[in-house]
Predict the 3D structure of the following.
Amino acid sequence: MADTRREIERKYEATPGTRLPDLTGTAGISSVADQGTVELDAVYHDTADLRLAAAGITLRRRTGGADAGWHLKLPVAPGVRDELHAPLTDTVPDDLAALVRARTRDAALAPLVRLRSSREIRHLLAADGTPLAELSTDTVRAQRLGGKKVTAVKWTEIEVELADGTDPALLDAVTKRLRKAGVTVSDAPSKLARALAETGRRVPDRTPPTGSTAGDRVLAYLHEQAEALTTYDAAVRRDLPDSVHKMRVATRRMRSAFKTYKKVLDPAATGPLADELKWLAGELGTDRDHEVLTERLTAHLDAVPTTLLLGPVRARLTAWAAAGRTASHQHTLATLDSERYARLLDALHALLADPPFRKPARKDAEPVLAKAVIKDFDRLARRTGTALATPAGHDRDLALHEARKAAKRARYAAEAAGPALGKPAKKLAKAVKGVQKLLGEHQDGVVAREQLRQLAIKAHAAGETAFTWGLLYGREEGEAERVERDLPEVWARTAEQGRTSKLRGF
């Protein structure tokens, strides 16, 4: 994988000959060191319809300067991006292309804009000489490549990029000082964005649709989840913490929306896509479930007194976790590189571009969405009642798992309806989340007990004592009993919130 660094910067408008104020004494800046001028030549790549630019992503091949090569910048927050660097080659590196494949899909990446910059560099230093930030003044010449020939444009901008470990508050202090000198923050989020605007290219608007009908609200929610799925695709490929979980949640939320709001979107059209999203969630589950289970078993083992750690239990758990982690992540990457996943993304974007609305989609959102949320809550109530009435044991474990799935769907339904139904829907979602969390703990315990049993069997077969594994198994049983004792009270509070929502009609 390419080298990665977190980039925190701010850009400012400037005119030729702009004089920078003295920044010494600003937010711990003790001195400013002139580093000379470098000439940079960057060619930016994107699809013909600017899919990367629309997502705030830049991909460039740059020569000149200390970091010549390919740079992929992925947005994290306003003014914050992760920059991935790969060596200089003639074509886009495969690992960088893979990170944007969920965006580009079947569209080719091609050079679209060339930026040549003359960069004057200054280092902002602390009293001990430690670099706090780099300040650069760039004279930029932009030229559109391919298609209609457009005259090159030119501008000057100032950029301040923090060094690793510098407090972001320095940017605010520098901005204040520059503003007093007549230098203002740039409206353009990047050089590429400005170059596209200056050379007559219009970046597609990625703002979700707005409106007050049921169709508008459901479609906006689906756009939000599709964007989350696409964003976390790159994070999963980079193996970032919790990324698999978040990507999996996006698939579940879309599936739930298709089921909950089947009066709004034709299930004949959404059904096949829901099946594919279920497949994707299942494939991602291999990685996520192993991650959750490893964390749970490790935490339990850490809580056992050393006098009760009999045999090589920690080594066995570590070996199991490492082997499973490698295999599960490779499986996940293979899934994301598969043709089936590519077809799923195509189908999802096609559905969002031309949603299969039914007649209720044209109605006001509140009554349509409220009815759907109440229906899902009633489903949860039935399943929870069944689980509570089932004797303890395997059948109750299964019933509680079914209730957990119903809780997720009811929660997602209320969250999706939140913008239309307001505070009552948000309160209901919060209450149901509490039930879902408790039921999730129970299901995690069911899975953990089975894995502990397998580890104990392997330990015994290897001539090791299975005492500690049995101890952990017993503790998991105790945790399950606690959850089952707490559930009636937690459910009673949630049921009351559901009744209140029904009476108010949201």
Q: What stands out?
A: The longest strand covers residues 31-46. The chain has a mean pLDDT of 93. The two ends are 49 Å apart (CA to CA). Residues 284 and 392 are 31 Å apart (CA to CA).
